[in-house]
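Every protein is a chain of amino acids, and every chain bends into a shape of its own. The protein below has been through that process, and both of its lines are reproduced in full.
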Amino acid sequence: MSKKSKYVLLIGAVLFLALEVIDRAGLIYRIMSCRPEGGGNDAAWTHEQRETIALLDEGKYRDAEAKHRSALRRLEELYGPEHHRVIEAINGVGVACLMQGKLRDAEDSFLRSLRLSKKLFGQNDPRLYTPAEGLYQVYREEGDCDAAEEYAKLKLSIAEHAFGDADARLVESLEDLSAVYEARHAFTQCIPLYERVVDVQEKSSAYSRASRAHALAHLAFLYGAVGRYRDAEPLYVRSIQILKHIGNDVDEDEELATAVSNYADLLRATNRPKQAQALLEQYEHD
């Protein structure tokens, strides 16, 4: 999943996790006990959130930050510094700052949100996922693999406790932790995470064929990186077969080209240069 796509998920989480929780079965239900005392204030804040999400979608990150900072001051006056609506506004500030590249401000916001969320909700409440995701993104941007690993693990723990396998955040968390290990070339640590990604996606109808093909190809790449060519080859074959029948989407064409190139590398590494060349020529013509 691209960084841009992850930021879209993070923006959506600011509003989504503010209103709803997903249990292990993937069912959505309202948290009645978390409604604020004033119905009018609640409605006003929800409207304000939706306006800010629209600003983020339009790329007006500075305006979104200003609007959320204003809302944060008002909510702190209404409810005090430790309230779930205050946490939502802090998350909004963090996302707006992250989108502007203001990493220190984003880090401060998400750390504050995480501290308050742990205090109010406990260790594995789904409302911790947004600040954990935000901190992961901050530290990945900075290239701080140790800190990114810490929050990738936290995200995975929350996803395992709060969301079902059909929820994209579980697979996203597995992929993110794998990405940290891959940045260190620790491929043996990546493999069990990506094996789980493939297993989850193949057992659930919630994932697209393209998503499954990408997971298969990436697991094949990881197998190849540690010399497990026999395990890698059938995954490349399956991935390529799926991708070539999906259509002419630009992203999927790029995925197909990458899978073909990596499979050709595997064929050459296992002393089959003629097959590698034939494979490349076949997909050049296609």
Confidence is low (pLDDT under 50) at residues 1-5, 11-39. Residues 250-269 form the longest helix (20 residues). The CA atoms of residues 243 and 256 lie 6 Å apart. The chain is about 75% helix and 0% strand.
